[in-house]
Automatic annotation (TrEMBL):
Assigned keywords, A-Z: Signal
Domain Agarase CBM-like: 70-176
Origin organism lineage: Bacteria, Pseudomonadati, Pseudomonadota, Gammaproteobacteria, Lysobacterales
Coiled-coil parts of chain: none
Name of the protein in its database record: Beta-agarase
Pfam families: Agarase_CBM
InterPro entries (alphabetical): Agarase_CBM, GH
Length: 712
């Protein structure tokens, strides 16, 4: 190497080392030195402090205002982060509680990247913001791992959800804010840097699941750390005993005046609706959904780095691997979910095998029925193992899953897919097939409580005009849509001339053909034109009548004995609920609220005079492994039990409610279930089949008290 080249390389190295020693963005511990810093309703102490590790920081007090913020801009031009992937910010929360911090990054073109994080109280840490949109959904799960985490000895708070987009060549500003604090919130900030690569994002998810399917980094009382411990805990005797003094189906003989028909039925007596057992006794249905062994499946293909010690996909473990594809463009629940196809592993079933070897399935069924009865449950709810019902130890329900190549309609919600078009003859045929399949082996079984049809259909859309979503969606449909043709025919019969409809709706409509085009934009109801809401309401009722009548008639043809338990409403309209009440024996609602009465219109149901069954409810927390806290969250395991007791007690005291079913038996997988990536702690038992002791004891006590309420 010649002397000139050596000198040039030395100078380049010196320059690079010097550049590396200078913060890439700014330093809020000494803000005057680098970037321009503007304080908006934020006060700086002016005194540099040093954290326990010696790093310089400075206090910033966010005042009580709408949105106090710190704005950092380049001293000259714009920042070029085109070779960077992460923004790192040294920070510490000076408060005794978590503080919400928003980070907004702007580019010169007006685009934004935004993240919101909860900064916990405690020692200093590094906040990492990926410089691109990301979310736990992209990693295959609904909720990401808890933060902060130990990233190679460094406390790191990763923003797992980032929204927006940026031109990284021209970054114009960084905004650090606390949204609308009610009192002064103080945070300490230090240096801001950028870094290439997504190492932090990868490390946050790496090795989060141990060989048993548990969150590897967490600790809780029921966590398993060895096969021996798993077998011991799994085979532990069931505590508690089934309720005594009941009939064979769990009914209460001490409630008098009820009819004996040989089948479950409903009856109203002394102003109270009741389910009645085949022997003629009062029955308040306390059920559990998804009592199955295959709920522990989670995709592993493409994200093997998230799992520690996965068993080999051969030999005895091959039975617990499988492959599937859950990509569904019409289903909102699946949108944005990564790792949603390919090879999966069933952690729950594998743990059952570890507990009971080759006899694991029979052993699980016996143990599970023992537990449910000891914990005060009397019904096996939807989506459960059929063999549990066939054991004739507890009554059970069946689901009629209508599926086929029939037309559909969008209501604008479409979380589980578009609405079936009940005017399509192919829907009628599909319903017939589904009913025949559902009742093939249970038509004459007195232990069958009844049938649900479908689940959480999109009867309404989203937003303030959501009630009318199905009507607006019908008119927006394809010109060949049978539902659309039926709606237009109804309008033509009422208005006769298109000009009459045009005046009533306040729209320009030159001919009836103008309605019959794909993508017709129907007007939202408004006060100036009340006929719009009236016509939409009439259509919604006709649509729901057609759906529920079709299903009810098919059930009655093939099984005249058992109850039609409704369609498990999640979203609904008054028209859909009224139609359900007309054609079903029971109206079922999936209620995710603190009390059942907060999940549906109780006054309307009372006026309709039909019994109500809560098809789903739960309370979740994040202190037992899975990252999610369910639809209705509480702080910890103890509060789960308290919330359960409050809910079922309120249900049993309501004269219109005849049962409540918990969702679900087992915790969801840490990395997300196959269907849609849900990964919440909402189970009675964990992924290891170990019961959550404190919670199930609270459940058992609450269920026993419900029996006492039900006798009145």
């Amino acid at each position: 190497m010649n002397r000139r080249l050596s000198i040039w390389l030395y100078l380049c190295c010196l320059s690079a080392c010097h550049a590396a020693s200078i913060p890439a963005v700014a330093d809020l511990a000494s803000p005057d030195a680098i970037a321009q810093v503007t304080l908006d309703q934020v006060q700086r102490t002016g005194t540099v402090e040093h954290a326990a590790d010696g790093v310089a920081q400075q206090r910033y007090a966010f005042q009580s205002a709408t949105h106090p913020q710190i704005v950092l801009t380049p001293a000259h031009g714009a920042w070029d982060w085109s070779k960077q992937s992460e923004l790192h910010l040294r920070l510490q929360n000076a408060m005794a509680w978590a503080v919400t911090l928003t980070v907004d990054i702007d580019d010169a073109a007006g685009q934004h990247l935004q993240a919101t994080v909860g900064v916990p109280a405690g020692p200093a840490q590094t906040l990492v913001i990926p410089l691109h949109a990301t979310s736990p959904r992209g990693e295959g799960m609904q909720v990401g791992p808890p933060m902060p985490f130990d990233d190679h000895g460094r406390p790191t708070l990763l923003a797992t959800s980032v929204q927006g987009a940026l031109d990284l060549h021209k970054i114009s500003a960084i905004r650090l804010g606390v949204p609308a604090p009610q009192a002064v919130q103080t945070l300490l900030f230090g240096r801001l840097d950028t870094a290439p690569g997504d190492a932090t994002l990868h490390d946050a998810y790496a090795g989060v699941v141990d060989r048993y399917g548990q969150f590897a980094r967490g600790r809780w009382p029921e966590k398993i750390d060895s096969d021996a411990a798993l077998r011991t805990a799994g085979k532990a005797p069931v505590t508690g005993a089934p309720a005594s003094g009941l009939d064979a189906y769990g009914g209460r003989p001490d409630v008098h005046g009820l009819n004996r028909t040989g089948w479950f039925h409903t009856q109203k007596a002394a102003g109270r609706w009741r389910l009645v057992t085949p022997d003629g006794h009062a029955f308040f249905s306390l059920g559990v959904n998804a009592v199955i062994t295959d709920g522990g499946r989670s995709y592993v293909e493409g994200r093997e780095f998230m799992f520690r010690d996965l068993p080999p996909a051969r030999g005895e473990w091959a039975a617990f691997y499988g492959s599937s594809d859950n990509r569904n463009k019409d289903q909102g629940a699946s949108q944005g979910i990564g790792y949603n196809h390919g090879r999966w592993f069933d952690f729950y079933a594998a743990n059952l095998y570890r507990i009971d070897d080759r006899n694991w399935l029979d052993a699980w069924r016996t143990r599970t029925l023992d537990r449910l009865q000891a914990w005060g449950f009397n019904t096996i709810g939807n989506w459960s193992d059929d063999a549990l019902g066939r054991a004739h130890r507890l009554p059970y329900t069946r689901s009629i899953n209508i599926d086929g190549n029939y037309a559909n309609v969008s209501s604008g919600y479409d979380y589980w897919g578009r609405m079936p078009d009940p005017f399509d003859p192919r829907f009628v045929q599909a319903t017939e097939r589904a009913v025949v399949k559902a009742n093939a082996d249970v038509r004459d079984d007195p232990y069958l409580l009844g049938y649900f049809a479908d689940n959480e259909l999109a009867w309404a859309g989203s937003g303030p005009q959501g009630r009318w979503g199905l009507a607006i969606g019908t008119l927006a449909g394809d010109a060949k849509s049978l539902a659309k043709q039926a709606f237009i025919a109804m309008l033509r019969k009422k208005y006769v001339a298109p000009e009459t409809l045009s005046a009533a709706w306040g729209i320009a409509l030159g001919s009836w053909d103008a309605l019959n085009v794909t993508g017709f934009v129907a007007p939202p109801p408004n006060e100036a034109h009340p006929a719009i809401a009236a016509d939409y309401s009439a259509w919604l009722r006709r649509y729901a009548d057609t759906y529920f009548r079709t299903v009810a008639e098919a059930i009655r043809r093939h099984d005249p004995h058992h109850l039609f338990l409704g369609g498990r409403f999640a979203v609904n309209t008054p028209e859909a609920v009224a139609a359900c009440a007309q054609y079903c024996d029971v109206v079922s609602f999936n209620v995710y609220t603190d009390l059942p009465q907060h999940g549906f219109d109780t006054a309307a149901m009372h006026a309709l005079d039909r019994p109500v069954l809560i098809g789903e409810f739960h309370f979740g927390s994040d202190d037992r492994g899975p990252f999610g806290k369910g639809v209705v969250s509480v702080w910890n395991e103890q509060q789960r039990g308290e919330a359960y007791a409050k809910f079922v007690t309120a249900a049993a005291a309501d004269p219109d409610i005849v049962g409540a079913h918990w969702f679900q038996y087992t915790d969801q997988p840490v990395t997300g279930r196959l269907l849609d990536g849900e990964n919440s702690h909402i189970g009675l038992v964990g992924i290891t089949d170990i019961p959550f002791g404190g919670f199930v004891e609270a459940v058992r006590a609450a269920n026993q008290r419900v029996d006492d309420v039900g006798s009145h």
